[in-house]
Structures are given as structure tokens and as C-alpha cells.
Amino acid sequence: MTSLHQAMLRVTVLCVAFGSGFCIMTIELLGGRILSPYFGSSVYVWGSIITVFMLSLSFGYLFGGRLSMRNPNPVTYAVFFVSAALLVLPLILFAEQIMEQVFLLIEDPRYGSLLASLLLFFVPTVILGMISPYSIRLLVQNEEHSGHVAGQLYFVSTLGSALGTLGTSFYFVLWFEVNAILWGVVATLIAAGVTVLGVYYLPQRATAGVQQYES
After folding, report:
1. What Cα–Cα distance (Å) separates residue 122 from each residue in 23, 24, 46, 56, 126?
2. Distance (Å, rounded) from C-alpha 199 to C-alpha 191?
3. In the 8-state DSSP scheme, what is residue 176?
4. Cα separation of 28 and 193, whole Å?
5. If DSSP codes are grouped into helix, strand and coil, which group holds residue 108?
6. Which domains does the chain have, with CATH numbers?
7. Residue 8: what pLDDT?
8. pLDDT band at residue 209 under the 50/70/90 scheme
9. Are the beta carbons of 59 and 128 closer than 8 angstroms?
10. Cys bridge to 12: 91, 99, 127, 199, which one at CB 3.0-4.6 A?
11. What is the 3-state secondary structure (H, E, C) of 113-166?
12. Do 118 and 98 contact (CB within 8 A), yes or no?
């Protein structure tokens, strides 16, 4: 891999990490809108949503860190984004049915909202949480710069989360329906995965084509 190719991949990883942070907070803020028709929008509901997101992100960081030690590569990294996008689809397609069943099963809005949040948000957020530690592993070239790389990565992803919070709460919910915003999240995550694959593979193919032409 040439230095130019490494630089392109580095910029790409930082950009998609920004996007993942943006998407995480977009989904979390929409969680209140999704649950409110059945469980209201009290502090209990928001407590359930925040708890589930913090718990799922913690597991994501753990699993992502472990996977990053096993032959880290951009292909696996891209799979995280595509998998997260596919796991967001049940929020669009089946959220109503899931919440209706939970509502009929558990009358207490505290535990009902907690169970609904687990069923709807836990798995996709775990996958999104795996992105940050894996990103660091892809960016680190040597141990001397690992602290700087980690700080840079978390700065970018947290900045994305902050802008996702403002963008969703100030504008998106006013302009679009919840499902339309979620489709935008799905499209963003798939685009991120495809971009990673493109940046990784296209320069290699171009180099191989040049070598074949010269020979």
C-alpha cells in the first residue's frame, strides 16, 4: 500500500467515523419519537433509551476492540457499516408491531419502554459502537502515535455526534418524518461502507492495471 493510498484510507476512516457518530445520535434522538405513541415521552422513557444506548455502545467498544486484534482490514470495517444499516431497517419496518406487543405485555411504562428500547436499538447500536475501536486500529501505524490517533478519532466521532444531535433535534424532525430520517441513516451507513471498500480496492486495481500494461 503506497503512502498516498494510506493517506486516502486515513481520511476516509476519519470521515466515516464522523458519519457513524452522527448516525448514532440521530437514532438515539429519534428513539423518543418512536416510543412516544405507546409509552409517552417522560423521563422514564428517555432514561430507558439513554441506558440502552450507553449499554450497547459499551459492548460495541468491547467487541470492536477484540475484533481489531484479529487481522484488522478495511473489508471487515466496511461490513460493520453495512450490517448496521441492515439492522436499522427493523426500526422502519417493524417498530409498530414490536412496541404494540411490548405494550400489551408490560403495562408499566418504565419497564415497557426499557424492553422496547432493548429490542429496537440494542443490536444496531452495538455494531455502531464497534466502529470506533476498529477505526483506531486501522489508523495506528506504530505505538508511539496511538494516543494521538485515538484522540483524533474520538474528537471526530464525538463532533459527528454533536452535529447529529443538533441537526436532528433542530432541523430533521421539523422537515421530515421519522422513517424518512431513518432511511437517510441507512443510506448514509451503506454509502460509508461502499466508500471504504472503494478507497481500499480501486487504487490496488489501478496499480495492477498499470503493471499489467507495462509488462
Report:
1. 14, 11, 15, 5, 6
2. 12
3. S
4. 21
5. coil
6. 3-138+152-210 (1.20.1250)
7. 83
8. very low
9. no
10. 199
11. HHHHHHHHHHHHHHHHHCHHHHHHHHHCCCHHHHHHHHHHHHHHHHHHHHHHHH
12. no
Write down the pTM of the prediction: 0.89
Per DSSP, the residues of 85-98 read: HHHHHHHHHTHHHH
Enter the DSSP assignment of 145.
G
Contacts of 45 (CB under 8 A, 6+ apart): 32, 35, 36, 39, 109, 113
Q: Distance (Å, rounded) from C-alpha 170 to C-alpha 111?
A: 29
Distance of alpha carbon 136 from its chain centroid, rounded?
15
C-alpha cell at 195: 466508500
C-alpha–C-alpha distance, residues 130 and 64, integer Å = 4
- CA-based nearest residue to 85, from 118, 57, 44, 127: 127
- The whole-angstrom separation of Cα 182 and Cα 174 is 14
HEC string for 20-79: HHHHHHHHHHHHHHHHHHHHCCCHHHHHHHHHHHHHHHHHHHHHHHHHCCCCCCHHHHHH
